Amino acid sequence: MADDATDREADDETGDGSDGGARDYDDVRYAVSEGVATVTIDRPDVYNAFTRTTVLELNDAVRRAERDDGVYATVLTGAGDGFCAGADTTEMPDWDDQYPEEYGAFLWLIQQLVWRLRTAATPSVAAVNGPAIGAGCDFALACDLRTIADGAVMREGFVNVGLVPGDGGGWLLPRLIGESKAREYLLTGRDITPEDAVDVGLAVERAEDALAAATALAEEIRDKPRTAVQHTNRLIDPQQSFDEYCRKAAEYQWDCVVDPEHEEAVAAFNEKRDPDYGRSYDE
Fold first, then answer.
1. How confident is the model at residue 282 (pLDDT cuts 50, 70, 90)?
2. Is the four-CA dihedral 217, 78, 148, 62 of positive or negative sign?
3. Are 155 and 176 in contact (CB under 8 A)?
4. Which CATH superfamily is domain 2-222 in?
5. Helix (H) / strand (E) containing 103
6. How far apart (Å, rounded) are the C-alpha atoms in residues 247 and 86?
7. CA distance 83 to 151
8. What is the largest distance, in Å, between two alpha-carbon atoms of the chain?
9. Which residues are 255's β-sheet partners?
10. Per its UniProt record, what PROSITE patterns does this chain match (predicted)?
11. Edge-to-edge strand order for the sheet containing 154-155?
């Protein structure tokens, strides 16, 4: 757990290149503990509603975790009682006075974060500890797995305010829970409750402490052979044909076969012991 170990905080400016170099953040906290990176949106007074700065920092933090050889899984969460309540409307410009290209550029920054989470080889777990609304819901959907707190809610509420799910939710949700159920949530703007999230397979589990549950899940993934985990994550793609899948699987499997961690995993299985991959976390 992050509170029990020395973390690599965002204000460590030494950066060895493995994580792209550390930098200071205003709206985000970044810490690595025992091989798990925790990225926290840190604007609790507004339920972690984001500004342009927040999105830029989130992009950097997620990219940093992906590049860090010492990170085996990433947890995304929010500070206080919220996950992310979407855009902070008090910080948004008056779009009526802007050109469409200006709005498109801002939306692109948000889409980049969703894309970055979606395509990362390092597995990500969203700890939905409170309201995940609009683009905040999309951030959770873009993660590979989700846990959800008892009092949390997810909502693709764009239609409620006369907008479309422009950040990725209209693409992600049907692929996660099926087209018909996704249309229900997208066209009505209804809440996805913790019970609903588990029932439709959107969340792995409902927990009193979503962050603790997400961290435990991330640690379980961390303890598997890294190459196998990352290639498996890459291989899961509902858009590809079976032929494409088989071609990738053959390439990825060879990478795994010649990986020393595969050899150790097989030896540990045969000898009925826990594998020892020779890792040392948080150095």
1. low
2. negative
3. no
4. 2-enoyl-CoA Hydratase; Chain A, domain 1 (3.90.226.10)
5. helix 100-119
6. 39
7. 11
8. 69
9. none
10. ENOYL_COA_HYDRATASE
11. 132-133, 154-155, 191-192
- What is the residue whose two structure tokens read 């299985």? 269
More confident residue, 171 or 283: 171
DSSP state letter for 227: H
Q: 34-65: per-residue pLDDT in tens?
A: 999 999 999 999 999 999 999 999 999 999 99
Type of residue found at 248: K
255 Cα distance to chain centroid: 25
Residue 99 neighbours by CB under 8 Å, 6+ apart: none
What are the Cα distances from residue 24, in Å, to 32, 94, 139, 172?
Answer: 15, 29, 22, 31
In the structure encoding, which two tokens stand for residue 92, read together?
Answer: 């948004």
Cβ-Cβ contacts under 8 Å for 212 (sequence gap 6 or more): 1
Q: Which of 2, 30, 70 lies closest to 212, judged by CA? A: 2
